[in-house]
Each structure stands twice: as C-alpha cells, then as structure tokens.
DNA sequence: CTAGACCCTTGAGCTAGGTCGAGAGTCAAG
DNA sequence: CTTGACTCTCGACCTAGCTCAAGGGTCTAG
C-alpha cells in the first residue's frame, strides 16, 4: 500500500523550488489540478504534485510557454497518442529555438561588424555604429 | 538655406514605418523631443524626426531596449565621449547576445538529444522526453 | 460648405508570468 | 493558552512596448 503523504503548499513549494504564489497561479491557470482541502481550507498535496511542478519547471527551462506546458501535461497522460504528440511539440520547440538562434546570430554578426569598425573615439559623424543606425535606407 | 519641411505625425509615421501611436508613445518616453505645434495643436515635424525614428527602429532590431536607445540617442549628440560610450554600449549588447546564444544553444542541445532519443510512440513511461521532464533530481 | 480623413488628449487594456498586500483564519510548539 | 509561522482569498500591481477607444477638434478636396 502507498503511504498517503500530505503536504502543505509551503512544503511542495520548497521541494519543487517555486514560490507559493506561483503554485496557486499554476492552479488557477489549469497547470495543476485543484488539490483536496483540509476542513480549514488548507490545500493538501501528495508527492505527485512535486513531480508535476518539477515537470513544469523543466519544460519552462526548455523554453516552453505555460500554454505549451499545459498541452504537454495533457499529452503525458494520454496513453495512445501522447508520446507522439509530445515528440511533435518538442520537435517544434527545437525548430523554434534553432530559428531564434539563427536570428540572433544574424543580429550578432551585424553588430560585431559595427563594433569592430568603430574606433571608439572621434566625431559622432565618423562612428560607423551611429551612421548605420541613422542611415536613411531600409 | 535649408527648406523648412513641415510634416504631420501621420506622414513621419508613414515614412519611418511606425504607428502614429508609437510616435506619441516615444515622445512621452523621451525618445523623441517634443515637436513644435501648429496653432491647432497638431504636431509639426521635420525630416530629422524621421531619421531619429529610423535610428530607434534599427537599434530595436539590434536588440537594444528603449532605455538603452534613450542612452544611445543622448550619446550620439555628445561630441566628446559620445562615440566612446556608443561603442561601449554596443559591445555590451554584443556580449549579451553572445551569452543569450550560448544559453539557447545549451537548451537546444539538451532538447535535440531528447527528441532524437524519443521513438515517437509507445507508452508514456518509455518516452525519454517525458521522463526527463518528470525525473526527481535537480 | 461639407464630407471624410486626419489629429488631439486621456485613460485603459493587452501579453506572459508572475508578485505583492491586506485582512483574516489556522496550526504546532512550548 | 499563546505566539509565531503558515495559509486563505481577492484583487492590484509589475515589466516592456505598445495599442486601442472615446469623444472631440481640424484640415482639405470638391
């Protein structure tokens, strides 16, 4: 038999490394199921809530939005198309990250060129950075 | 002599490719100087306002925040330490972008590994993605 | 002169993901 | 029983960078 653990919101916040307010926020947002309550109204959790919170945190670290995480959580409970869906979402996220990196790289290179060309002194009109920012075309 | 052009907010918005509301917003935020007004209250701009708007747009594309752009604009008018300051800010921005790219790359690699390891079918317990998200350590 | 396009101000709302405060009730140790 | 830590709800606020609505005045072509 499984031991029925009973954790307060403060305890799971501590275990999962998130703020109490964040947990209540996730509950409102449907990322966490509404937990049972003590007669006093206190929320009562078991260990699975901690896993779920960690799941959310990990996914967030991977750049998923809360909306996407909601989907992942739904899929993770689906024994039929769940894994397929999860893989799809992860692949999509991966592509989004790749796109973002490519975009940043483009910006980075443009900026690096300007910084290298700039002597760091002299008249504003001779600064390639300022000139690039001010020039009329595109 | 320079021809005194007189442009309405709609015209410079058009020329610079930004929304009218955005221009008024920039004015409130101190990115654009308060223009002179017609007796009716209409704002009157000259061509330099368009340059300035383009400057802002370019800088934004390079990832500068409006706060940073305010600084750049101030520096660009400074004939003494202006160029030095601009170069410093640009270098700092470059470093921030590099850091961000490195961070994204890290996330990307982690995610790519999981996606590759995931068969895309089978039981949720066998999905490396779900397992990685749910596992108890850090 | 009039219609329609343009402009004015003030103030609110939006996104995403929380974060905080007030005011009140509850729990556990001593 | 008391005290201090914990929890409850509700609602407001935060960042950044806009974006929109309401209600009104202005400009210009015909």
From TrEMBL, chains A, B:
Domain of life: Bacteria
Organism expressing this protein natively: Luteibacter yeojuensis
Alphabetical UniProt keywords: DNA-binding, Transcription, Transcription regulation
GO molecular function (one): DNA-binding transcription factor activity
Pfam families: MerR_1
Transcription regulation found in the keyword field: yes
Protein name: MerR family transcriptional regulator
Residues of the HTH merR-type domain: 6-75
């Amino acid at each position: 038999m499984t031991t029925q653990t009973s954790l307060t919101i403060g305890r799971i916040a501590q275990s999962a490394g998130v703020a109490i307010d964040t947990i209540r926020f996730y509950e409102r947002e449907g990322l966490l199921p509404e937990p049972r309550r003590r007669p006093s109204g206190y929320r009562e959790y078991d260990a699975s809530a901690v896993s779920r919170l960690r799941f959310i945190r990990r996914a967030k670290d991977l750049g998923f939005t809360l909306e996407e995480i909601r989907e992942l959580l739904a899929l993770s409970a689906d024994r039929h198309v769940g894994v397929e869906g999860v893989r799809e979402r992860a692949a999509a996220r991966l592509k989004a990250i790749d796109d973002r990196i490519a975009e940043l790289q483009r910006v980075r290179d443009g900026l690096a060129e300007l910084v290298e060309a700039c002597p760091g002194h002299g008249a504003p009109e001779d600064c390639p950075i300022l000139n690039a920012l001010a020039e009329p075309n595109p």
